[in-house]
Amino acid sequence: MAKNTRAKSTRPAFPDIVRPFQIEGSDVRGRLVRLGPAFDMVLSQHDYPPPVARLMGETLALAAVLAATVKYDGVFNLQAKGSGPVDLVVADVDSEGGLRGYARYDKTHFDSGEEPEYSIPRLMGTGHLAFTVDQGPDTDRYQGITPLEGASLSECAQIYFRTSEQLETAILLAAELDTGASAKIDTMHGRAGALLVQRLPDGPSLARTEEEREEDWRNAVVLMSSLSAAELLNPDIPSNGILYRLYHEKGVRVFNSRPIEFRCRCSRDKIAEALASFSPESLIDMKTDAGVIVATCEFCHTDYKFDEDQIEILRDT
Ligand SMILES: [Zn+2]
Hints:
The chain is an alpha+beta fold. The protein has eleven helices and 13 strands.
C-alpha cells in the first residue's frame, strides 16, 4: 500500500556538500559548495551580529571550496585579519572534511543595531587574507598571503589567484541568514555557498587551439557570473541542477562529493598541551578566584576546566 510519508510542505533541506565537476572537452574544472547544517552549527555556538554571521558563512564556504582544490593530508586553514570592527575571521578544513570557524569582532560596533554596509573594507578595514596547509611536523607548510584589497571576500581571493598563483580562478561566494517568523526560535539558521571555476594549465583539451581554450575559459566564467547569490542559496534548486543549468550546453561531468561537516578538533589533551607551554607565573594569572583554569575553545565554545592538581601537573610538564 503506497503511503504518502512525505512531511508537509517544509522547505527542502540544504545539505552540506562539496561537489567537484569538470566542463566537458575543456580545461575548466570546478567545485560547488553548499553549507547548511555546518553553518548552522557555527552560528549556534556564537551569537554573531548578522553582518558578522554572513561574513562567517562566506569564509566557511571559501575555505571549503579552496580546500577542495588541493590534495593534502592535514589541515587547510584560511584566515583574514584586519583593522576593522571584525579583526579576525578563521575557517579550517581537515582532510577528512571536518570544517569549523570563528570570528572575532568588536561587539560595541554592532550594538547600535545599525547594519554597516556589507563589504570587506567596512567590516575588516585593511589587512590580509592568508591560506596555509599544515600537514603535520616535518613537512613543508604551504602558505599564500594577499592584502585585503577587494570589496568582497571573493574579490580578495581572486586577487590572490591573479597575483600569486599561476591558475586562472573565478569564485562566487554568498551567505544569508534566515529572517522572518521561522528564524529566531532558539538558533539562527543560515545558508552559505561557493562556486569556483579554475583553468588548469595542463587539462585534457590539449588538442584544442589556444584561442579555443581561451574561449572555453571565458564562457565558463561568463556562465558562472550568470548565477545569482539567491540561486546559489536556493534549496529548491539541487546542487547538480545548478551545474546543469550553467553548463549543460557543453556538458558537465559531476564527480562524487567530498565529505564536509562541522567538526571541531579540540580536545582536553590539546588544550592541556597548549597550557603546558605557558610559564608557571602565567598559569597562576589564568586561575579564577576558585583556583581553577577554564580554557574555552574559540571554535566550538567548549569549556575545559583544570583544577589545582591538574594545574600542578601542567606546571611540571
Ligand atoms: Zn572546539
